[in-house]
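Lab notebook: predicted structure, single chain.

Context: the supervisor wants predicted structures on file for every construct in the current expression panel, including those that have not yet been purified. This is the next one on the list. No modifications to the sequence; it matches the entry in the shared construct table.
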Amino acid sequence: MQSVKKAGLSDLDKLVPLFEAYRFFYGKYLNRLLSTAFLKARLQNRESVIYMAYWGKKAVGFTQLYPLFSSTRLQRLWLLNDLFVDSEYRQKGFASLLIKKAQQLSQETEASGLLLETGKSNLPANQLYPQLGFKQDNEHHYYIWETPIASL
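Prediction complete. Output recorded below exactly as produced.
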């Protein structure tokens, strides 16, 4: 049975392994201690909203959203920063459930929408997002400046 629930501090033991697998997927070093501290701080400080997907009682995926604000829209905007589903449970609708929950959060908080990025090579995601109402932004350039520190 599929379900999605909002994560809290009591869910860290189930969330951290998924978060570590997500970071590993993106070529980052595994560090359970730092991952736990990072997620705990986000939850304690209410700096993000995390939803977890379950198959029965087994946690199989998560999404993490950060609040932003748009000066031009004069509204909140949510950054859908992280989305991950365990490889055994992909193509079973969990990503869609998590995204729909994020869309619901956006509506409930009267936000102007959700913002996300994904790699051009991430074909499953690039097929899924348009199916769920996302539009690719072809009007703007995306830039990033990174602080010259060691990447974790």
